[in-house]
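Problem statement: downstream parser choked on a complex file, so we are re-checking the raw output for the guanosine-5'-monophosphate run. The parser issue turned out to be on our end (a line-ending mismatch), but while we're here, posting the original submission so the record is complete.
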Amino acid sequence: MTDTASPFPADPSHSDRDTLHRRGLMFILSSPSGAGKTTIARKLLEAEPELGLSVSATTRPIRPGEVDGRDYHFIDQAQFDQMVEAGEFYEWARVFGNCYGTPKGQIRTGLKAGRDFLFDIDWQGTQQLHQKAEADVVRVFILPPSLDELRRRLEGRGTDSEDVITARMARAQAEISHWDTYDYVVVNDDVEICFDKVRHILAAERMRRKRQTGLIDFVRELTRG
Ligand code: ADP
Ligand code: 5GP
């Protein structure tokens, strides 16, 4: 993709500067493992400096290479239960014996201030988040171009054993079956084209009338006799 073909300015800091105040949005990216969700999410965060990442809380032990506060907020079960009790999660789930949850905290205040957040969660978390905050949620599902290519990508990533890859492939079918619960579905064939499509979705969703809370005063001023 050349600069001339892109509607986005070369300086990314100008791309999402709105003239009117608006409410932020919750941008959810989901995909079967290996389809490219992490790749697209990284590119989006890089290109959109005003997009924050929602960091989940979890009770699972920290893995080598992970950073507390960046990858997850690593907390113990008592802290997690306390947060559930206090209603501090938008949604939470138990996965393979560990608890994972999306804290409301900075997100609730950020949305009011016009800040957008990216969520890297699966279809179950997406459904719960949509039930809690439908008006703020935008759901994007990324599909691989084929199952053969999905396997090639999982093998090429080099992070999983053959057993884990077989398990991920088996789960992929089930995950793909939830495609129709998303607002947008994008096939990740060429990574740059897929990224560009996802970025267009974000740009269009930011301009929705209901999010532009500054419009009422603006239009009132425009139409004042
Ligand atoms: P996920 O987060 O969905 O599990 P990743 O983003 O880790 O997937 O991508 C899986 C592998 O596929 C990575 O090695 C990544 O570099 C590669 N990949 C992602 N998108 C594409 C694409 N469009 N074409 C070829 N390889 C890709
Ligand atoms: P992992 O332990 O490999 O990082 O994640 C395991 C699973 O937990 C993944 O499927 C991931 O999508 C899911 N997960 C991570 N954070 C959350 C969250 O906040 N809520 C929900 N519902 N699932 C999450």
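For whoever reads this later: Confidence is low (pLDDT under 50) at residues 12-16.
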